[in-house]
Amino acid sequence: MPPGLDVPCCSHARQAISGLPPASAPTRDDLAELAAHSYVCLGMSTYRIGEVIGLSRQQVRRLLARAEVPVRPRGAGRPRQRTARQRTLDELMVSLYVDYRQNLSEISALAGVPQRTVRDRLRAQSVRMRTRGRMNREDRRTIPAEVLEELYVAAGLSAADVGELFGVSRHVVLRAAHDLGLPVRIGGPEPAHGPSEIELIDALYAEPLVQRALSRHGIARHPAGGSISQRFPVPLPVSRELAEELYVGCGLAARHIELLTGQPAHTVFRLLKAHDIPRRTAGGRTPFMRRWRAGVIGAPGAGGQRLQRPGRGEGYQAPRSATFACTRSGHGG
Fold this sequence. Notes:
- The protein has helices spanning 11-18, 28-41, 46-53, 57-66, 84-98, 104-111, 115-124, 145-154, 159-166, 170-180, 200-206, 208-216, 228-231, 240-249, 254-261, 265-274, 287-294; strands at 184-185, 197-198, 309-310, 315-316.
- The chain is an all-alpha fold.
- It has four domains: 11-66, Arc Repressor Mutant, subunit A; 84-129; 145-185; 198-322, no CATH class.
- It has a two-stranded antiparallel sheet with strand order 1-2.
- The model is unreliable at 1-8 and 298-333 (pLDDT under 50).
């Protein structure tokens, strides 16, 4: 006998559900009362009620309407208790997704359930879903910090050589080095003047224009020392005003904005396109990197000043031609 049958809601309901013959043939109002009792009190579905009283689902819905009982949308059935086996399977899927970094397709194949079910069960366990495709933040390939410090910094191997050892591109190596705050050598010929390596995150936060932009938008500093998903477990929102100020006004690259907000560079590019912010032509250094290489911290007329950076054997003074204005209309190169 279903639970809740002892509730004295309706004699016809108790008789029909328990299989006892009713004392008399039920009227349409009796059937409506029976359907309402079964649906509201016992939590039965319209399909199950139809099976019990010998009516179609559509007829049951009409009976419920007659009894003025609202019908839940399809798929919004009563909460079901998870069995011990289902709870164990949920825990296994969470472990595979969070601890072993497997994707939904792999977990679906192992558990024998559709990917949609895997996603629903993970969300029900309050698991934050990873981003996918080119916007993926959590599953990026990287190089351990101690390896980069030993091979790239101490031994002086190139990013391409380190990448070849680990089967990744030089881009992955340089990205990991920037994320960790390691000094990264400037590409191209050895500069005759100025610095030959950069700790990019510190350099970005040291730029007064960037400092003022972040301050205006209430963005706190996130020191270097981990991947993008470690430094920003939740990426910061990037509004049109912030994107335009950092990309156009300060001359940053999308990768630089990623390091400051946690939003993947490809997401930044999509934001620029969605907000009709024109992109700079490909190639060459960004205005920010040109200012940094020239030793110019800020823009003239904006409280900027020149920074004395050590050159080779003597102090380095940026030439006049290396000063770049940083305005909303001047993108630089």
